[in-house]
Write a structure and sequence with these properties.
Largest sheet: 8 strands, mixed
Structural class: alpha+beta
Bound molecules: flavin-adenine dinucleotide
Strand content: 25-35%
InterPro entries: FAD-dep_OxRdtase, FAD/NAD-bd_sf
Radius of gyration: 22 Å
Distance between the termini: 38 Å
Cofactor: FAD
Number of helices: 14
Shape: globular
Pfam families: DAO
Number of strands: 22
Keywords: FAD, Flavoprotein, Membrane, Oxidoreductase, Transmembrane, Transmembrane helix
Organism: Candidatus Sungbacteria bacterium RIFCSPLOWO2_12_FULL_41_11
Length: about 450
């Protein structure tokens, strides 16, 4: 860990050491080269306010640990799914090449359809998606009973059931991934400095460069990238970008249960609802524990369990009459009132578990009240963008690009596409520097592209 004694000058400063910031540090270090001598020696700093990488949403206790690729995600249309797939391939090439057993677990991932309506939707989806996803197949109750016995045990035999299963199920420890990306980045770029315990307090543009005030002195850079989760939007607004945007901060809780599933079992998305249904999967940290979740609960906090971040939340323009009107419109338009209320109830002592049991039983019909335990002190927060001009929720990725600056607030689907987003931001940085650097596409494709995956 380094301490900044005086004003430090860099080509690029990345703020945030979660999976987004560390993936960018890696891609910039490994694949963006100097046009003069093809070296990788850009001066980069990564500033992280915590004492290590990935302590917030990228921590394995705080997210669902899934590598999404669009195949079984019923909330994605085909075009979006195929974009996500490119990102998933890059991530999987990276983790597989590391040979670190703790980094990921390979499993199956499925979407379970229960009832005639869901079965029909999943079958239709399979028809449409299977030409693009060689790893998916449709299975009926018999095969489901072999693959996931507890999903079929005790189920009403008259109820139609099927599942679309992917053999490419990956559970990833995104904290380990962040640490690995940083180690690899430092190995190829000796000019990468990582500063932990350094919190950016303010940012301004002065004399054509960016000046970042921190608790540890002043940092200066030609280009800046905020990969600071919800805080990225606050800093963007400090520089005059994204002033028409607010955040709906949606916390996700998890429940624990004994070993019940062998792979990731997702439920079908409710049509028109902007939030995904709960799923069950083995914890990447302990395969003998099944996690159910995440739930969906709006909270006025920038970071989960950090109550002091409420005071930053109220600096956002969502805390205004216009913001309140937008939130009311979103809740009414998407019919979210009952859904949000139910999700709030799940956190209540004693009765919360009782109501959540009904959700969990769609996946595991025989699960009992005593099997479920709410996980305390864990779970992250998804910052969802609210457009205050239109009063609409903007789902998916939100990146603001300004003059030599990038702000990533809601990478989507989050951690799964971190390397693809790192590539996208690195390409933008190459443009900022107008010819000084180039992106080495050939090496990137060789290491992390679809060609590499097909060779396997
Ligand atoms: C419940 C839940 C389940 C999810 N499940 C999945 C899943 O299964 N698969 C998936 O792909 N994605 C999932 N996601 C999304 C995923 O977790 C996030 O998109 C991803 O972790 C975001 O990474 P990040 O680096 O952008 O943000 P974070 O991991 O939150 O990192 C931001 C970093 O910025 C730092 N920071 C903030 N402000 C400052 C400052 N002022 N100065 C210095 N540093 C600062 C923070 O300390 C933090 O380390 C889930 C999210 C939630 C909440």
């Amino acid at each position: 860990m380094k301490k900044a004694e005086e004003s430090k000058v860099f080509d690029v400063i990345i703020v945030g050491g979660g999976v987004t910031g560390t993936a960018l540090a890696y891609v910039l270090s490994a694949y963006v080269k100097s046009s003069a001598d093809h070296s990788t020696g850009k001066k980069i700093a990564l500033l992280e306010k915590n004492s290590g990488a990935a302590e917030v949403n990228s921590h394995p206790l705080n997210n669902a640990q899934t590598s999404h690729d669009g195949g079984t995600e019923t909330n994605y249309g085909l075009a979006h799914a195929l974009e996500v797939k490119v990102g998933a391939v890059a991530l999987r090439c990276y983790v597989e090449a590391r040979k670190d057993k703790g980094l990921f677990k390979k499993t199956h991932r499925m979407v379970l359809a229960v009832g005639a309506g869901e079965v029909k939707r999943v079958k239709n989806r399979f028809e449409k998606f299977s030409p693009y996803y060689e790893d998916i197949r449709l299975i009926g109750p018999e095969e489901l009973a072999t693959l996931e016995p507890m999903v079929m045990k005790g189920r009403n035999p008259d109820e139609p059931v099927c599942a679309m299963v992917s053999s490419e199920g990956y559970a990833v420890d995104y904290k380990k991934l962040s640490e690995s990306l940083l180690d690899d980045a430092k190995m190829v770029n000796k000019n990468l400095d990582v500063f932990f315990n350094v919190k950016v307090q303010s940012v301004r543009r002065e004399g054509g460069v960016y000046v970042l005030e921190t608790n540890d002195g002043v940092f200066v850079a030609e280009a800046i990238v905020f990969a600071a989760g919800s805080y990225s939007l606050l800093f963007a607004q400090e520089l005059g970008y994204g002033l028409n945007l607010g955040l709906l901060l949606v916390a996700g809780d998890f429940f624990s249960a004994p070993e019940l599933v062998n792979g990731k079992v997702y439920r079908v998305q409710v049509e028109g609802r902007p939030f995904a249904e709960i799923h069950a999967d083995p914890d990447v940290l302990n395969q003998r524990v099944t996690r159910f979740g995440p739930t969906t609960k709006p909270l006025p906090l920038m970071e989960r369990h950090h109550y002091e971040t409420f005071f930053d939340f109220i600096r956002l323009p969502i805390v205004s009459l216009r913001g309140a009107w937008c939130l009311a419109k979103i809740i009414c338009k998407n019919n979210l009132f009952g859904y949000v209320f139910r999700n709030m109830v799940y956190s209540l002592p004693v009765v919360g578990k009782f109501f959540f049991l009904r959700e969990a039983r769609v996946i595991i019909p025989t699960i009992r009240y005593a099997d479920l335990k709410i996980r305390k002190g864990v779970g992250g927060i998804r910052p969802q963008i609210v457009n205050l001009d239109t009063g609409e929720l903007e789902m998916g990725d939100k990146t603001i690009v300004g003059e030599n600056c990038i702000f990533n607030t809601t990478p989507s689907p989050g951690a799964s596409v971190c390397i693809r987003n790192g590539k996208r931001d690195a390409e933008q940085i190459v443009k900022f520097f107008r010819g000084k650097y180039y992106f080495d596409y050939e090496t990137f494709e060789k290491d992390l592209g679809t060609r590499k995956k097909e060779e396997k």
